[in-house]
Amino acid sequence: MPFCHLQIKLLRRQAPDNWITTQTSAVSPNTIGQHLRQRRLELHLLQNQVAKRIGVHKASIQNWERGLGKPMIKHLPAIIQFLGYDPSATPNSFPAILIHLRRKLGLTQQDLAQVLAVNPCSVGRWEGGQGLPLAKTMAAIENLFKNCA
């Protein structure tokens, strides 16, 4: 008896521009995931649309919004650009400022050390509040970050 091997494929329509959602976001978001969810809902975007804008998989957005994990440092610049602001607290000490600006640029400690031509352990010490860079290195740090703040 012959069987029909016909497959019908349809493209699933995206949510309309005027879609209404029952999803809610935190009144005062605390985590990056909560900030992302709030912005996504304001813009009436789906998680996969946000994922494409940031350059990650849809599952990453889902996990961040649920509080399951945090974005990698390399994704922070795109997240900040999507949000239109930096969701992290304003730093008030040199170690906190260094961490804040390094993350904003999407650099690891090792990446920053390579840019500054210093040992990665030095960056770790500075971020841990154990001393300050030499004047020459401090000038290089200020120059690197002056457009980032």
Chart the SSEs and their pairings.
Blueprint: H1 32-42, H2 47-54, H3 58-66, H4 76-83, H5 94-104, H6 109-116, H7 120-127, H8 135-145
Describe the fold and architecture:
- The structure is a single chain.
- The protein is 50% helix and 0% strand.
- It has 149 residues and is mainly α.
- Among the domains are: 32-83, 434 Repressor (Amino-terminal Domain); 94-145, lambda repressor-like DNA-binding domains (434 Repressor (Amino-terminal Domain)), CATH 1.10.260.40.
- Helix 1 crosses helix 3, helix 2 (47-54) packs across helix 3 (58-66) and helix 6 packs across helix 7 (120-127).
- The longest helix is centred in the N-terminal third of the chain and has 11 residues, at 32-42.
- The protein is elongated and about 80 Å long.
- The N and C termini lie far apart (72 Å).
